[in-house]
Amino acid sequence: MIDHPKSQIENPESMQRVALVIQYLGTDFHGWQRQPNQRTVQEEIETAISNVLERPVTLYGAGRTDAGVHAAAQVAHFDACGPIPAHRWASVLNSRLAKDILIRASAKVEPTWHVL
Q1: Annotated catalytic residue: which of 3, 28, 66, 100?
Q2: Active site annotation includes 79
């Protein structure tokens, strides 16, 4: 469990935008985008991030894939505050995700950078 001092959460300067490069085997997914009662890549990663941060997180992806489609280097981003440096998110998430999703890289990007 990660402790989040109140000052870090309320201080916008501690917020960082994290970009991810994601690889996945789409065979067992109903595509990228979150869907009710379906396993999706977006929801799997959002759940892992939210569990680490102990709060809901939205993951924004560059494009979408359909059910069964694989990806080698899909880019996405999310906003986080706390003690985890952006470059460490890949290993943090890989230790929590199923074997059909791999975070190939993570990096801090400018707060105005957006995948869309």
Answers
A1: 66
A2: no
